[in-house]
Amino acid sequence: MRPNRLRERFDAGQAAVAGWLSFDSQYAAETLGHAGFDAVVVDLQHGPFHVDAAIGLMQALSATPAMPMARSPSLDFATINKLLDGGAWGIICPMIDTAGQARELVSACRYPPMGMRSFGPARGVLYGGPDYFDKANDTIEAWAMIETAEGLRNLESICAVDGLAGVFVGPGDLSLALGLPPTPRWREGPLAEALDRILQAARAAGKRAGIFCTAKEMAGDMRRAGFDLIVPGYDSLYLSSAAREWVAAAREG
Amino acid sequence: MRPNRLRERFDAGQAAVAGWLSFDSQYAAETLGHAGFDAVVVDLQHGPFHVDAAIGLMQALSATPAMPMARSPSLDFATINKLLDGGAWGIICPMIDTAGQARELVSACRYPPMGMRSFGPARGVLYGGPDYFDKANDTIEAWAMIETAEGLRNLESICAVDGLAGVFVGPGDLSLALGLPPTPRWREGPLAEALDRILQAARAAGKRAGIFCTAKEMAGDMRRAGFDLIVPGYDSLYLSSAAREWVAAAREG
Amino acid sequence: MRPNRLRERFDAGQAAVAGWLSFDSQYAAETLGHAGFDAVVVDLQHGPFHVDAAIGLMQALSATPAMPMARSPSLDFATINKLLDGGAWGIICPMIDTAGQARELVSACRYPPMGMRSFGPARGVLYGGPDYFDKANDTIEAWAMIETAEGLRNLESICAVDGLAGVFVGPGDLSLALGLPPTPRWREGPLAEALDRILQAARAAGKRAGIFCTAKEMAGDMRRAGFDLIVPGYDSLYLSSAAREWVAAAREG
Amino acid sequence: MRPNRLRERFDAGQAAVAGWLSFDSQYAAETLGHAGFDAVVVDLQHGPFHVDAAIGLMQALSATPAMPMARSPSLDFATINKLLDGGAWGIICPMIDTAGQARELVSACRYPPMGMRSFGPARGVLYGGPDYFDKANDTIEAWAMIETAEGLRNLESICAVDGLAGVFVGPGDLSLALGLPPTPRWREGPLAEALDRILQAARAAGKRAGIFCTAKEMAGDMRRAGFDLIVPGYDSLYLSSAAREWVAAAREG
Amino acid sequence: MRPNRLRERFDAGQAAVAGWLSFDSQYAAETLGHAGFDAVVVDLQHGPFHVDAAIGLMQALSATPAMPMARSPSLDFATINKLLDGGAWGIICPMIDTAGQARELVSACRYPPMGMRSFGPARGVLYGGPDYFDKANDTIEAWAMIETAEGLRNLESICAVDGLAGVFVGPGDLSLALGLPPTPRWREGPLAEALDRILQAARAAGKRAGIFCTAKEMAGDMRRAGFDLIVPGYDSLYLSSAAREWVAAAREG
Amino acid sequence: MRPNRLRERFDAGQAAVAGWLSFDSQYAAETLGHAGFDAVVVDLQHGPFHVDAAIGLMQALSATPAMPMARSPSLDFATINKLLDGGAWGIICPMIDTAGQARELVSACRYPPMGMRSFGPARGVLYGGPDYFDKANDTIEAWAMIETAEGLRNLESICAVDGLAGVFVGPGDLSLALGLPPTPRWREGPLAEALDRILQAARAAGKRAGIFCTAKEMAGDMRRAGFDLIVPGYDSLYLSSAAREWVAAAREG
Ligand SMILES: [Mg+2]
Ligand SMILES: [Mg+2]
Ligand SMILES: [Mg+2]
Ligand SMILES: [Mg+2]
Ligand SMILES: [Mg+2]
Ligand SMILES: [Mg+2]
């Protein structure tokens, strides 16, 4: 089975860097997959598509150096199972509020007896190889998003869930949960305190911490702060910001 | 009928700036359509899709400030007709080698008696309004790409074709045609001379000139040189270059 | 942010009229969007598609005068969130049985602190404009369908739910719930009584009332009865009934 | 092999009536297929789709009483071959100008030695049955559209082409070719004369005549005039006209 | 309404044989539909697609002798409803653990008052005919998968659920639940005992029993053992095993 | 640039074996790509799809050991260019009748000055790597199908075309061209003689010879006869024949 590329980074003492895909274009997926990321996360929560397109996007990513991951739209057992069948080497699940939910997430990502994932012939085996069943439980990672008030309250018990790879911060929703505007202010104030607390809790529990970054400076700051998994921006931000720069170059350059 | 936004720019003495779309994602199309372009060109020649996807992309563009245009895959009458039916307000046709081909292009873009475009109930009318048939011949523009050795030889006769809106330079293919590497060197040498000649020929014939630019500096240079329609870069370049910058910010920032 | 067109009608003392789309064709969507409706509802419950197609249909509607709305397939938080991200300016949720469910529906349609909707970069912002986040909670409407025996029993408590825009009657399912055949008899009998009760309850609670109509006469009757939101028929009924008329004209006309 | 349903009508001394599909929705296709037509023509010329969608639409039609046919986007050998492979029991080809083109059309629809159609394993055999190869040349029909000035000039020689099933009038384009507005005036004037001439020429050559009708009255008139194949209206006209009636019923009924 | 073909087999004292589809290709669906099966099950659990593709696959199957069925991705009311609307004549639901879940499944498959299925105009009626509503409750079958430890514990109470057509064994997951490797050993040991127990329980309750078979020998064995519904293999197994045989023939034959 | 896997076989003195894909399912593509073939040919001539689907299928193949190739629907310059942009490492073009057509084919597959292929940013570069432009002309192969009477007549001059990789036999169409039934009889008679002549002509011209085989025995025979590229069967044949065997095992095993 293809190894988990995030862990290769972690084992080398480095942060892993993942891309974020919300365009339902396999060509865009490949473009991101060749841009230097360790993994690319297909976003089924805010991306305008569901599993049909998502699996195609993971198929496209499978031909690139980047490892396919998926953000599930929710803690839905069947959807998570299908994303794994479709070749996701990791699941990031939004809005985990409780340890019980985190346990459900882990269960959905593991075959019995460690979980309740259903076994079926699917492309994960094609992409992963004939030892997929034997190694999947150890290779595939489940990440719980901390981004609600309740999730923050239950942070330590969530971090303690056995089999969870890590916690992943959604700073926009977390800002809203803290009564702040959605554009994250990560350097000071309540969000900064929450990020610090999350990082500490993850470490204390022997788990990884990841975060979605909405500014380049944030990405560097978060890596230096110790986050293991950095998502620096996302496809539609790349496209619109670069397009605006080129338009300006054409009109005024 | 919605007016031709390029002409509004031209009439104001400005260059028009168009985006270039090769991702078959309607969300990417909308993202480009809101990025400040006057038009967005759906590329059926090098983009990994044909008319089915292209019309969907033009539908998505129709809800943005950018006017939908299309680069046809070739000088194929039926395909050009369908792209117009699908709501293209302008066609850029690759590899026009002769004045005869340019006349075919114009004919495919115009209803009789000015051309041979077929009339049928289609979404152009929905997007354009009930006066579409009456105004389409005057509103929709046909641009001939000059990018082959033969096209360059026949430049003046192509520019003289009645009803043609302008000539549009494909600098990569034109470089190859001139025996140069495909990455355009627009500031000096054979390509620079050809660009100058094309611009002169267009002006002499009362036609517009447009160009695809692969560098920001090229976009500004071409506008200053007098090109009327500037395409500064393209979606996959935006995505990959911005992604690389953000990856660097995450790893080293 | 684009205003809610239904409210413009309501504020003018008029009923709003919405189309109903179950064809997964963007061209059909645009055709309906230009047919005179104030809004068009993309039906994910009985339409043969899920969110991928639905968002494309809303993209197509975005270029028309009709405001995009969606009937969600069920009270599923993630699906409702994605439809909103995809540009729905209103959600109609089937089979609301209890006030608790109605509150969940409202919560799914509102950002914190008024609800639990997740914030993410998505096309709603493109379609709606940069003030989308600030105005979305006030602009986007949630409608609860009353169409089960339990929903009818809990009608008043459902109508009392804060933030709910209105109740919307599914007369076919409601007829079944009342022990009647599915083709609605709206003028007398148990269904007529239920419709009257629903209308009264909505008014008493300061909420709007809407209804799906399966006959032209029903549409007029319901408007005169005081329903605020009228859905007169649906696409497949239009297509099949008109087709039959034209077939008859060809064979016997 | 399933028989040609048009011929069953013709053999019974009746006109055949075909539907016209431009919505790329398989559900819309089935809806039309159950509306009483003898056949439904999938329109690849003005419909916003190409062969991928068209074959899906014919698959959907295959489960209905209506026989699948296709209007090809042009006289393109490979496209016509693929539509046949996809299960079209008849091809209507636009803009046939000469007898030579009509012969090419016939050739594309027939296996050697009667034509140059390529043989390959495809769904036509699934839909048609194991005797498909043996009977296809005799069952599948090719219709040439007469709708240009040149086609009208060459009418008699086109009608004389061996193997052609009939000529089919595109009255919108033909009106343009005659210098008239595109909305057909079929009862008098140049178009009426042309229709009469086409009908006579077809009969004289032992060929069938068909026509696309844009009004119910036209459909009845054309049947009475002797046209064999009547296409009464089309899907988007059905949808928009019925929608407008229902909107009026809701607003004013 | 088209009859249930499984029952025709059962009534004739025969086992029914169903195909299993995980390729999201309508052409593959038709190919299976013409291969001699009584039904073909579209697999939404492990197949790489959701309802959009699944309904297209059922449309394709509708033109074949095989009756369309679907395995739902989970016990999700809305999804099951939509698959029925899409023309499934039977639902196989994975991972039924309790009688309560089995009752929910039955309810999702039946209109009131026997269940809570929602009534709406959809393609089931097109495929089934105008008496669809009257006969659907009696024709469409719900099958509960027994494949978890909990489901096995509750086997008898699940079998006792009124309206359930039968139980269907997922031998891979059941093996995992029994602490065995996922490749089923059906002839002896714990799985063989479980299969026997399931068959007995189904019979005792007057229900049918079905099973998914991963080897040809297993298919024959299970039929002889008394299983009513046999699924012999699945599409991707057919394709890969046959391909390997042909590759060997080419390289070494 | 990834090397041409066929040549690796040829250089090792072996025949190459290619799969044949007509299912528009990326999962089916991957399944074939992992079944032991050196390459898989996406069939746009008889497969029910065009370039949009074909490029997705090649993306899926890109993650497998099999090299992506495509059979173009015809000798259409723009389509062949797009398939190459989409990552085809080889083109098989049907129905090449003359040396002039073969030269056009070669030209469409090569950048200037060796051909007229257009250069554009596309996924071929992603899949192939940054040296794609430099090596594409030498790596990508063009194969001309010999399957018509005229092609057979012009065999030697076709084989002499510079830059052509080889000739590829379509035995079904060639049989028809020879006045035989479409199911190939390769062991004796006119087809056997033609195959021998083609093989000799290819060798005499220093070109490769390939053939599509419709029986396992034919595949072995053709390899032994000296054909370089063997296509043993095709996906729909695999699926239907294996399905029938499994049905038999279930019913009678
Ligand atoms: Mg979030
Ligand atoms: Mg070019
Ligand atoms: Mg309802
Ligand atoms: Mg016409
Ligand atoms: Mg299972
Ligand atoms: Mg052939």
Count of distinct strands of chain A: 8
CATH structural architecture of chain A: Alpha-Beta Barrel
The rounded Rg of chain A comes to 18 Å
CATH-level-4 superfamily name of chain A: Phosphoenolpyruvate-binding domains
- Our count of helices of chain A gives 13
Q: Which hetero ligands occur in this complex?
A: magnesium ion
* CATH fold naming of chain A: TIM Barrel
Please summarize the sheet with the most strands of chain A: 8 strands, parallel, barrel
CATH class of chain A: Alpha Beta
Q: Which series of helices and strands of chain A comes N to C? A: HEHEHEHEHHHEHHEHHEHEH
> Unreliable stretches of chain A, pLDDT < 50, 5 or more residues?
none
Structural class of chain A: alpha/beta
Assembly type of the chains comes to: homohexamer
Mean pLDDT of chain A: 97
Helix content of chain A: 40-55%
Pfam families (chains A, B, C, D, E, F): HpcH_HpaI (PF03328)
InterPro entries (chains A, B, C, D, E, F): Aldolase/citrate-lyase_domain, HpcH-HpaI_aldolase, Pyrv/PenolPyrv_kinase-like_dom, Pyrv_kinase-like_dom_sf
Protein name (chains A, B, C, D, E, F): 2,4-dihydroxyhept-2-ene-1,7-dioic acid aldolase
Family (chains A, B, C, D, E, F): Belongs to the HpcH/HpaI aldolase family.
What's this, in brief?
Chains A, B, C, D, E, F: One of its GO terms (molecular function) is aldehyde-lyase activity. Six copies of one chain form a homohexamer. Chain A is an alpha/beta fold and 253 residues long.
